[in-house]
Structure formats: structure tokens, C-alpha cells
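Bench notes, bay 3.
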Amino acid sequence: MRIDMIPVGKNPPDSLNVIIEVPVGGEPVKYEFDKASGALFVDRILHTPMRYPANYGFVPHTLSPDGDPLDALVIARSPFVPGSVVRARPIAVLNLEDEHGGDEKLVCVPDDSTFPYYQDVGEKSDLPEIVLQQIEHFFTHYKDLEAEKWVRVGAWGDADEAKRIILEAIERAKDAKGA
């Protein structure tokens, strides 16, 4: 896959492309795309036997403060195949800190043109509370059994905060390419 050929989205920050690495309910295996080759590598097998609470991937042409593209969860009733590109809308962000520093997780739903089931979801408060609890629980505990790894779950941000983070990450990626 030529990741560099996939745009950040149709209308960022309102509509994004998310490249899926791990499907919802997937085995406790963390996959990551190698940005240079486009190959999907096994990053690690989670020591804590937990399944991903949402489809998990990243937004191309963004750069987080940790040096990776922005992480994104896509809430959906179905698992998406790793390597698929999903048009999605950001509705929230979960702020985390881990052994490498700040680590935001965008929470998105499929764009209305992809699947209108989520057309009335504009904020995290539009989701069932259990969905948010599952996401928070997953990220609180998924590194529990890995030596020298840790995570602290911080505050949730709304759709506007998620969009601000996206715009900053797009600019950071542009600046890094120009450097």
C-alpha cells in the first residue's frame, strides 16, 4: 500500500481517512503499518489478553507529538480489514500519557456516506456510556503485563478538541516534510 498516496481526508478535520491496523474485537495483536514500505507488521502481541474495543488505526499525513501519525479508533458495528481505509468523522479524543509521553486517541465514527447508522452521532455523549467505558478500560489496562510500559488515562475531549488536535497534527506533518 502506498500510504503516502492516501490523503488525510475529504474535508479535514471534519472528514478523515483512517487506515485500519487492527479490527474491532481483534485478537490481542498490535499491528502497525511501516510508513516507508506500506507493509503491515506485527508490532507486538499484547501481554494482557484483551480485544480492541473499536477498529484501530491512524490518520495519514498527520504527526503527533510522539512522532507517529495520529491514532484513531473508528466505532462501528463491524470489524474492518487491516489495510482498509475508512472515511470517518471525529467525535472525541481520549488524552493518554504513556512511557513515551502524550498520546491522544481520536474517537471517530464512519462518515455518513460510508454508513448512515452513525449520522446522529456528533459527540461522545451521543454514544452509549458503555462504549466509552470499554475504550477507557482497554487503554487503562492493555499494557498492564508489559514490563516498563504504562498508561495513564487523562480527560476526554469533545469533537472540537479532536478537530483542533487534527489540524495541529496536519501542520506538524507538513512542517516535518519541509524540514
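Next record in the batch:
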Amino acid sequence: MNRIFRVLWNAATGTFVVTSETAKSRGKKSGRRKLAVSALISLSSIMVSADALANAGNDTGKGIGTENGWIAIGEGAEADSTITTKEKVAEDPSKGYVAGAGIAIGYYSKASGASSTALGGYSLAESIGSVALGAGAHTTSTAKYSMAVGTNAVASNLYAIALGTNANASGKNSIALGRDTVSSAERSLTVGLGANAASLDSMAFGYNTSVTSDAANGIAFGSGAVTSAKNSVAIGSNSTATEENVVSVGSDALKRKIVNVGNGAISESSTDAVNGSQLFATNANVTQNTTDIAANTDSINQNTTDIATNTTNINSLSDSVTTLTDDALLWDAASGAFSAKHNGSDSKLTNLAAGTLAADSTDAVNGSQLFDTNEKVDKNTADIATNTDSINQNTADITANTDSINQNTTDIAANTTSINQN
């Protein structure tokens, strides 16, 4: 034969398998082919590192198999029936080795974890159920069910996944995707060249992005973005988030706008972002209010001046009222009348207009009206006195006339007697 492998039908598994042309079996059943690789090996070969492929081309055909359910292929790879499931092997370091149900393919590849798989030169799968795929890929003894895929990729914790050259996933349930990525905290995720997520539940996406160890739940998205505070997000190239519970789209040196933002709800309880059009409307109202306030300020200043004037007038009026109170007529309850007495002395009422003179008038009359009346009374008194004198004279004259009449009556009676006698 001119090739080192050949394909045969495996009746036990019902599949075609690849077997070494020169392989020799050791074990209880010498007639059984021991180095069998299923079609999975052919599929996996496209992902084996360059070193592993080179070694496959130079394979000396020394691969050896047993019945423990594992496979070893490649220079220095060895399968020994004394290696049983879950046993860690301590063999000659120049040889690859596998544990029970494991697979090691490649130059110095080692699958020491039960049911583990190491594919590629110097690949090492140390923990149960782990997969190390690529030259120098390594899943550590503490990394059960982990996966390291890529040259020198390392997965060193439970369920960790490292995918890419030099990718390193050391946090429990962490994922590192891309060259030189590092996910060192539990449930951390990195995607992109040089991305680093160092805190719990953190995520770093993009070239050289970083979430620091004190930034739990932080997210960095974009080339060079850095988040260094809890529960914060840095979005965009070289953005930084340095305060807790913030979303940053830039840095102290780099400012960005957020565009195409919908109208946020405006209410007492709203936490929505508002956009420029909403703020423009608010600014327009503020501008109008400023104008109105300025106008009101002028009015207020004028009112202040008017109030000062009114205060002066009120004070003057108050003084006048005080003076008027002092000079006003006061009610005298004892006499049931207003009194003009002040400071114990009687006072005059001056500048009193002429009151109406009529039978039903209740107006007060002034001195001039009373003076005119007094003049008339004095005139009447004088006239009455004159009339009295005249009356007295008339009475005297009447008395004299009565005497004369009486005398005349006597004379007439005497004359009548004389006439009668004549």
C-alpha cells in the first residue's frame, strides 16, 4: 500500500472508520482492529492546527488502541489498555496520552480528562468532558465541560469557552471569542481582538474593549471602549463609562450626539429621554415667559412706584383722618346729640352752608341766616314798640273821644230836653 491509513466498515458501530495500515493491536482480542476513527475524525481534521496536520502527514503509523473507548493518533500518541476511564495518565512526555473514552489527535496531544478531546499539536484536555482544539489549546483540570478552540486558547474554569488564538476564558461560565480575548470573571463575555471582561456578568465587544474588575454588569461596545463602573455601558469607539449606572456614548475628549430619538413622555413620573424638538418647544415657552416676565417686571416697578405714592397719600390721609377725628363732632350719648366740645371747651361750627328754611326742613342753619332773622326780629320789635305807642295814644285818644262822646251824649240829651221844653 502507498498510504498509511485505510477505510474499513465497522460492523459493531455500523459506520466506515479510518484505521492505520501498520497498526498492531494489543489486548485480549488480537483479531480485532484497535485503532478505529469514525467519520467524526475526518470532519474534525479540517479544524486541527497546522502542526497537527503536518504531523499527520508525517505519521509513522505508531498509533495504538485498546478497548476502553478512546483513540490516540499522531507521533508520540499512545493508547494503553492500562489507561482506564477517569484515570489521569503519567506517561513518557514524548508521547500523547488519553483517559477513558477520550480522544487525542496530534503531535504530543493529551486527553487526560475522562471523555475529553484533544485535537492538535501539544493540545491538552485535562478535565472531564472538555475539548481542546488547536495547537497548544488547553483545558485545565478545573475546567470541567469547558472548550478551548484555537492556537494556545485556554479554558480554565467550569463550562468556560475560549475560541480564538490566545483566547483565555478563566471565569466560570465565561466566553472569550477572538484573538487575545480574556474573560476572567464569572459569566463574562468578550468578542473581538484583545477584548477583556474582568468583572461579574460583564461584556466587552470590539477591538481592545475593556470592562474593569470593579465594573460588575458593565458593558463596553466599540473599539477601545472602556467601562470602569458598576451597571454602566460605554457605547462607541473610545467611549468611557466611569460613573455607576450610566450610559456613555463618548468621553471627556470625545462627545457624540444621539439622533433619531422619539418623543419621550413628559410627566411627573417619566424617566424617558426627550429630543431636541421637545426641548425647542420648552425653550420657546421659556423665551416667551422671559419676555412676559420682563414686561411684568416693568409693571411691577411701576406698581412699586405707585404703591410708594399711594403709601404717602395714605399716610397723609391718615394724618387728615386723625386731625378730622380730633376736630369732628362727637356723639354725646347722655344728651342724645352730637357735641362740638373739645378739650372741655365749647367749639364753633364754621363754614356751614345755609340750610333750607321750610316747615319740614331739618337742616342746620348758619349765622348769616340767623343774623337776618334777628334783624327782622329787631325790626319787628321796634315796629311793635312804635305800634304800641300808637296804640297807647290811640287808646288815650279813644278814651278822650269817649269822654267827648259821653259829653256830647249828655249835651245832646240836655239839648233834647231843651228842645222838648221849647
